[in-house]
Write a structure and sequence with these properties.
This protein is an alpha+beta fold. It has helices at 29-37, 80-91; strands at residues 6-11, 41-46, 52-57, 60-66.
Length: 93
C-alpha cells in the first residue's frame, strides 16, 4: 500500500445515551487521529446504515465495525479497534 492513502470513512447514524438517532462523529475521533498520524487523508461520508463504520481504500471496504464499539473521544491509541483499522488500511491494496 502506498504510504499515504486516501481513506473514505463511511459512517451511519447511531443513538447516544438515549438521544435520537443521528450521524455523530464523537466516536470517530480516535480512529481519525490514528489514521491521520500515519499520514493518511481521511474523508468522512455519511451513510444510511445504522451503527456502521466502514473504511474504504481504493474503492474497496478494508475494515468495518459497529460504531458503538469504538471508544468515545480520545486519541485512539488505546482502542484495539483503531489498531485493527490502522493495520487494515496499511495492508490494503
Amino acid at each position: 500500500m502506498p504510504e499515504y492513502a486516501v481513506v473514505i470513512m463511511r459512517y451511519g447514524p447511531y443513538s447516544a445515551v438515549g438521544l435520537s438517532v443521528e450521524h455523530r462523529t464523537f466516536r470517530l475521533q480516535g480512529l481519525q487521529a490514528v489514521l491521520a498520524a500515519d499520514g493518511h487523508e481521511v474523508i468522512l461520508e455519511k451513510i444510511d446504515d445504522w451503527n456502521v463504520v466502514e473504511l474504504v481504500v481504493n474503492e474497496e471496504v478494508v475494515f468495518h465495525c459497529n460504531i458503538n464499539d469504538l471508544e468515545f473521544g480520545g486519541d485512539g491509541k488505546l482502542d484495539p479497534l483503531c489498531e485493527q483499522a490502522r493495520r487494515a488500511v496499511l495492508d490494503a491494496y
